[in-house]
Amino acid sequence: MDQGAKGLGAGRTGSERGDLGQPSSRARGFSIGAVRMENPLVLAPMAGVCDAPFRLICREMGCALTYTEMVSGMALVHANTRTMEMLAISEDDHPIAVQLFGSDPGVMARAAVMVEQKGADIIDINMGCPVPKIVKNREGSALMRDPERAWAIVRAVRKEVRVPVTVKIRKGWDDYSVNAVGFAKGCVEAGADGIAVHGRTREQGYSGEADWHIIAQVADALDVPVIGNGDVTCAEDALEIMEQTGCVGVMIGRGALGNPWIFRECLHYLDTGELLPEPELYERVSMALRHLDDAVEFKGERVAVREMRKHLAWYIRGLRGAARTRDAINTSERVEELRGIMLEYLS
After folding, report:
1. C-beta of residue 99 within 8 angstroms of C-beta of residue 67
2. pTM of the complete model
């Protein structure tokens, strides 16, 4: 791992880190506005992933704050059926941040009011998504190239809602326009109650390594909570990003795909300094089947089968024979087929 990207402690095991091996104080929670999180662990907003069944599983594993998939502000104000369904929030799924994306301050403010009425504890504004179809509409990370518009969106949303407002940003557009610190300051001045920073530029997308130094710079510059995001794939990473950056929250995204146990492992390590063993195959398959059943109950068989294929493959990724099983999963059309494939893999 490149020490220049993450600092001198990057890539070392717990026993090699010396003073980083005293993690107990890092398990404490944090607050954004009046919303209290019982520990530092946060589930990142991931499109096509962070639906209600997955959020609840992660929460059971120790995640303190969940985010929804990013929701289009424009689609909300036009009462798009699919978009409205994304706002389903159960009583057990709190505190929760609903993430909105858009480029029109007025539309975003109207959408924020709707989200608050649906029960969101926090409203998060996406200013970091690198996906081309989002960026071309001046949304997501494109707003980091248009800070005045970005700050106008924050002001408009802040004016209309009572719940805390946060913004998720990136390092910058590319390595020639790294503006996270100034951009984040402007968001806070416009009314943001917290900032989440992904340590990559838009140009990087999800490639290369996350720059934790920029997260540290943002955390040092602001007097609101900062959540660090990028390359947290194990318990040791969670401690390390907190130690290196001073962030109060640790946002986990791709590290949780097929691995909700990462929250349990991180929380235990932050609290005790001990690494838990990885889940056994039986636990992996059992959780996968539970996730499948929850998805069917929540979305119906047709939608659940289509959306759960990727999740089931993630649960067994890297294990012996997983590639062959994945091929079978991807051609299945019914729940019973998927259940049979997973049970056969277990046997």
Report:
1. yes
2. 0.91
Query: CA-CA distance, 321 to 157, in Å (whole number)?
Result: 49
CA-to-CA dists, residue 70 to 125, 132, 191, angstroms: 9, 15, 20
Mapped onto helix, strand or coil, the DSSP state of residue 172 is strand
The string of pLDDT tens digits covering residues 104-124 is: 999 999 999 999 999 999 999
Catalytic residues: 129
Query: Tens of pLDDT along 244-284?
Result: 999 999 999 999 999 999 999 999 999 999 999 999 999 99
Helix (H, G, I), strand (E, B) or coil at 6: helix
Domain locations along the chain: 21-272, 281-346
Please write the tens of the pLDDT for every residue from 15-30: 333 344 444 567 889 9
Q: Let me know: does 163 contact 125? Beta carbons within 8 Å.
A: no
CATH code 3.20.20.70 for 21-272? yes
260: Cβ contacts below 8 Å, ≥ 6 apart = 54, 57, 58, 60, 61, 63, 287
Contacts of 56 (CB under 8 A, 6+ apart): 90, 92, 93, 294
Rounded-to-integer distance, Cα 203 and Cα 175, Å:
8
pLDDT value of residue 81:
86
| Amino acid occupying residue 242 | M
pLDDT at 6: 53
Which CATH code is given to the segment(s) 281-346?
A: 1.10.1200.80
Bridge partners for 135 per DSSP: none
- Distance (Å, rounded) from C-alpha 109 to C-alpha 177? 28
